[in-house]
């Protein structure tokens, strides 16, 4: 963790420190396979662990009969409950069911799916005794709920404000769908941050040797080869700026593409060799795929042949094979060629010469594949650099972004200028004609705003869509959204009014028609509203008018009709549904915990009954209790398998009623001798003090004899008490309650000590002031209180 220092670029705002207790600063890397959570603390950014102490949380959601299993618990359900377990769902966000990418994705899935009424993907999953259809946003919302819980567990506060990572190639619809998922999980997304930009921020933020803003920037290429995709960005850094210059990607090429290549290879081999069709069994497919992934990882480390061996893969057959790195590279040669495409594209689009590139930083789990690193060397003429944490940089960048947006931290000025990968155009009807205008070009800076001018006498509609023929666009669905401008009226003379429309791609990369105004030109001294000049561009799309008069701006209503965003009423319903599932998960966990408590009690007691508790249990109780334990054990696996929480609580209470007496006797037997010994020590000390007084010790010669006598009497009484009780305890068997408890001994000691202290710690009077002495003075008695342990 980065330590706080006065010159540190990152620290808690002094005047807003209270905010840090109420506002969260969190970055989530939503990987296709692994999610990471980074939080900002006063000392800097820290990647936090989940309840299993792992820093990564698998992006898996599994629905059980009674509750959800998300993250690590979900992953363990992949082989056991494949029909109700969803993973690899990130790319389905905001995609139509019929999109070829969706269909390719679903082909490998083991869960049931359907097209929803609005044409998107629905997962058909069994949950709580019913088959229900969940949207991708809901499943992502469940994962985000889990991640939010992990962040809250670490920060010990409610988490809402955050920055979420998003693949740089995500379309408008995908970004909107993710934002809805975040709302379902109760998160307030301050910004969606492109994954490769997050990595660039994690790289540049702490660099102290970047060129001045007036100098030539340092150019670094970031390459993220994750589980599902490849993202490449060329970035220019100066002291206070990060400028993304170019970005390219392959949205469907990542580590899993190599796993699937291996899976297909070995499935074909085993078909011939062992006469088994692995793909006919989900379980066998899942096992073989997992082994292929392991093999791929081992091949990253060694060049020799690596064995692959699975016992009882299917039809009771054990399978064996081998592969070397060289064979793997041949088998996946076309995939490596595909990796080269976006690498070359970024180099070309950025306009950078190889020599201008300071470093090529690689991140993402699959960037550990050696042939991938060789490609970097081949294309950029530089060794791949691995100075960043390959798994955690995206989450760190997101947390840094969150810190710089949030008021909780004061961070150094470092502006992130990102780009939107795809060109967007606007279409509208005018006098029965279709018109289209480019509004944002591909690789255009974000955020970006434009003002468009129209002349209309009534409500009208604008359609935004991606420009056709953008080969990198990962969807066939070009529509971005329709936006209806309402409340438009003609001018007094019946002529169309002038309407200014503000369109924007916001910092999250989401397109919107943000506002529309009717612009009235008036003569004379009318109240004049200043024109909004915040747009980068002001485009007058139609015939210009006479502009010499003053203007009055009247806001108009813009109604977005965007399929990928859930309408407010539907969003409310799914937020409520998520809330109910959180509550039912919590109740189910409590129920399971109470069942486990009974089970643990049975096993613990059975062990201890023959061991430490044995002498403290009367023989007849032992028999009854043992029988009760066996009966409870059987009950837990039969009738008691599935009971409500209060039944388990009651069962545990009943068992404890039997065990509490001997457990208490055992505990007393451990503690009572210590208390008895302490009382005896107090008696010994007090007796010594009385003897010192009687011997005329100077230390006590100011004490009253009657007081000391009271102590002497108390000593005899206490000694008699402790001796009698000891004898009584010794006379009884251990399985009977002792005639005195630990706390009684403690009480006796406390009252005895109080008496002794009041007598022996009485302050010695100060000797009267004496005139000058000629003889040497008698040394003053030191005031030393009696120690009573
Ligand atoms: N040593 C290794 N050699 C090869 N591949 C590896 C190695 N270690 C991890 N991987 C692969 O990295 C991939 C996971 O990478 P990562 O965690 O970066 O993905 P992600 O962030 O979840 O996905 P994405 O970025 O695509 O959304 C898996 O395919 C995994 O097999
Ligand atoms: Mg990733």
From TrEMBL:
Keyword ATP-binding: yes
GO molecular-function term, one example from the UniProt record: ATP binding
Lineage: superkingdom: Eukaryota
UniProt-annotated stretches for the region Disordered: 762-789
Keywords noted in UniProt: ATP-binding, Nucleotide-binding
GO cellular component, one term: nucleus
InterPro entries in alphabetical order: ATPase_NBD, HSP70_C_sf, HSP70_peptide-bd_sf, Hsp_70_fam
Pfam families: HSP70
Spans traversing the lipid bilayer: none
Keyword hit for Nucleotide-binding: yes
Recorded family membership: Belongs to the heat shock protein 70 family.
Protein name in UniProt: Hsp97-like protein
Organism of this sequence: Capsaspora owczarzaki (strain ATCC 30864)
């Amino acid at each position: 963790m980065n330590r706080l220092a006065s010159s540190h670029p990152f620290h808690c705002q002094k005047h807003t420190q209270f905010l840090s207790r109420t506002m969260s600063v969190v970055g989530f890397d939503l990987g296709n396979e692994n999610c990471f959570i980074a939080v900002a603390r006063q000392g800097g950014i820290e990647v936090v662990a989940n309840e299993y102490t792992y820093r990564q949380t698998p992006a898996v959601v599994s629905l059980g009969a009674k509750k959800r299993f998300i993250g690590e618990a979900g992953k363990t359900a992949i082989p056991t409950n494949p029909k109700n377990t969803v993973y690899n769902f990130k790319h389905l966000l905001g995609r139509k069911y019929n999109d070829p990418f969706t269909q390719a994705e679903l082909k490998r899935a083991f869960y049931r799916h359907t097209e929803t009424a609005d044409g998107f993907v629905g997962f058909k999953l069994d949950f709580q005794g019913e088959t229900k259809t969940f949207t991708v946003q809901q499943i992502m919302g469940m994962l985000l709920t889990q991640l939010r819980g992990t962040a809250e567990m670490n920060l010990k506060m409610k988490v809402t404000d955050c920055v979420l990572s998003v693949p740089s190639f995500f379309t408008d619809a995908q970004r909107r769908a993710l934002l809805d998922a975040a709302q379902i999980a109760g998160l307030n997304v301050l910004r969606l941050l492109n994954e490769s930009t997050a990595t660039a921020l994690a790289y540049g933020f702490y660099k102290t040797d970047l060129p001045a803003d007036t100098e030539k920037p340092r150019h670094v290429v970031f390459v993220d080869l994750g589980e599902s995709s490849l993202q490449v960005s060329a970035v220019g850094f100066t002291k206070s700026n990060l400028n993304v210059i170019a970005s390219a990607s392959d949205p469907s090429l990542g580590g899993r593409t190599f796993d699937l290549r291996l899976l297909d290879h070995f499935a074909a081999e085993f078909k011939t060799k062992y006469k088994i069709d692995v793909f006919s069994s989900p379980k066998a497919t899942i096992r073989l795929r997992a082994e292929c992934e392991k093999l791929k990882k081992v091949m990253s480390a060694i060049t020799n042949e690596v064995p692959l061996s699975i016992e009882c893969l299917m039809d009771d057959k054990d399978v064996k094979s081998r592969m070397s790195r060289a064979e793997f590279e041949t088998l996946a040669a076309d995939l490596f060629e595909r990796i080269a495409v976006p690498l070359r594209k970024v180099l070309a689009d950025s306009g950078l010469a190889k020599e201008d590139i300071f470093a090529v930083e690689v991140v993402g789990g699959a960037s550990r594949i050696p042939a991938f690193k060789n490609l970097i060397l081949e294309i950029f003429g530089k060794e791949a650099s691995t100075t960043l944490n390959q798994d955690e940089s995206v989450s760190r960048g997101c947390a840094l972004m969150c810190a710089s947006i949030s008021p909780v931290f004061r961070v150094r000025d470092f502006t992130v200028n990102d780009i939107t990968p795809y060109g967007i155009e606007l279409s509208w009807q005018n006098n029965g004609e279709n018109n289209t205008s480019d509004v944002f070009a591909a690789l255009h800076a974000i955020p970006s705003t434009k003002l468009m001018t129209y002349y209309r006498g009534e409500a009208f509609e604008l359609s935004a869509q991606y420009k056709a023929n953008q080969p990198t666009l990962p969807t066939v669905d070009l529509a971005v959204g329709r936006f209806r401008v309402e409340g438009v009226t003609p001018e007094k003379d019946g002529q169309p009014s002038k309407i200014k429309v503000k369109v924007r791609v916001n910092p999250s990369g989401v397109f919107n028609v943000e506002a529309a105004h009717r612009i009235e030109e008036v003569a004379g001294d009318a109240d004049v509203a200043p024109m909004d000049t915040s747009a980068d561009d002001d485009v007058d799309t139609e015939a210009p008018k006479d502009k010499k008069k003053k203007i009055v701006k009247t806001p108009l209503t813009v109604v977005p009709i965007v399929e990928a965003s859930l309408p407010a009423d539907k969003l409310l319903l799914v937020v409520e549904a998520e809330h109910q599932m959180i509550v039912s998960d919590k109740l189910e966990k409590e129920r399971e915990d109470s069942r486990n408590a009974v089970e643990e009690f049975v096993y613990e007691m059975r062990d201890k009954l023959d061991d430490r508790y044995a002498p403290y249990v009367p023989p007849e109780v032992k028999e009854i209790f043992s029988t009760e334990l066996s009966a409870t054990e059987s009950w837990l696996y039969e009738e008691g398998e599935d009971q409500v929480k209060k039944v388990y609580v009651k069962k545990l209470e009943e068992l404890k009623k039997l065990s509490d007496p001997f457990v208490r006797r055992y505990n007393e037997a451990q503690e009572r001798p210590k208390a008895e010994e302490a009382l005896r020590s107090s008696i010994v000390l007090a007796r010594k003090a009385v003897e010192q007084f009687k011997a005329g010790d100077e230390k006590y010669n100011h004490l009253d004899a009657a007081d000391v006598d009271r102590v002497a009497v108390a000593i005899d009484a206490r000694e008699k008490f402790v001796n009698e009780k000891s004898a009584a305890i010794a006379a009884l068997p251990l399985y009977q309650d002792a005639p005195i408890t630990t706390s009684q001994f403690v009480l006796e000691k406390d009252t005895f000590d109080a008496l002794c202290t009041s007598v022996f710690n009485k302050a010695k009077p100060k000797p009267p002031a004496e005139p000058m002495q000629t003889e040497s003075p008698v040394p003053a008695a030191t005031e030393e209180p009696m120690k009573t342990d």
